[in-house]
């Protein structure tokens, strides 16, 4: 059999033979395609407001946590926009050659890597602020933050470079070209049939998971180092617990798609016995739901966490915050 699949191979993904269950109903398919659109609307509703607030105020631009948060929100916004652009191109039936598709995938992977590295930088910033409050400004001044953000974008370029390079190599040698630039389809029809591309993507995913494990370790170290202090007791307890809950929730949502993707890539080694329909569904859920969900929730989680941004959101949406009135005795 030819290891390079043509467009007729899509029929094997959609059905495995006569009398068997066909691929998902149109309703289920539309729900999966609708998830990125809903996430884009949710992000577009609040992220530009937060970005304008952070970048327009001098006092917020002088704080490292707000600069790193702005970089996370900016990366997530562009990542979802690239996802929507790819969905629109595929829905319109536009055929793409390997180079435009590679550029689209490259920018998407770069934006995702930038978001992960920015979260890692936020962990370092929190650790320095809590563990060394008197040396915090010396260890992490604002000028160093701008350099860290620039380094994040430079490093983010190298993560997807290997996978995209292998992608171009595969399509330059393949006799049959696939003109649909859809990551789920590419994972089913390309990655599982080209070992170098499979290995490069697996190493990239494992590298990102390793970074997220370092992030989780940083928060655990921070918790155990401050457990004996008064951070977790008294009036500050609820705010400290809320901060850690938001961070852990964000990390959990970031871990899930990568773990599922790594499992899928490992299962691709047994592509001859693996059901292509199940592989396609797994890829669709990862790309259209699990990867998008933390991006859509991040501006709401962090926007409600920081008081300056929370007050802005309540004012922008004309909501009244409950106030506590202390009687004068």
Enumerate the spans where pLDDT stays under 50 for 5 or more consecutive residues. 1-24, 324-329
Secondary structure: number of strands: 0
How large, in whole angstroms, is the Cα Rg?
22 Å
Shape: globular
Helix content: over 70%
- Please give the alpha-carbon distance between the first and last residues: 87 Å
Order of helices and strands: HHHHHHHHHHHHH
- Secondary structure class reads mainly alpha
β-strand amount: under 5%
Overall pLDDT metric: 76
The largest sheet is: none
> What is the chains' assembly state?
single chain
Count of DSSP-assigned helices = 13
Subcellular location: Membrane
Pfam families: 7tm_1 (PF00001)
Domain G-protein coupled receptors family 1 profile: 47-302
Keywords: Membrane, Transmembrane, Transmembrane helix
Structure in words:
The protein is an all-alpha fold. The protein is 75% helix and 0% strand. It is built from 13 helices and no strands. 31% of the residues are buried. Residues 1-24 and 324-329 have low confidence and may be disordered.
Topology readout:
Blueprint: H1 10-14, H2 26-56, H3 58-61, H4 64-91, H5 98-131, H6 136-139, H7 142-173, H8 183-189, H9 195-226, H10 237-267, H11 276-290, H12 293-305, H13 307-316
Provide key terms for this protein.
G protein-coupled receptor activity, transmembrane helix, olfactory receptor activity, 75% helix, mainly alpha, 329 residues, disordered C terminus, single chain, transmembrane
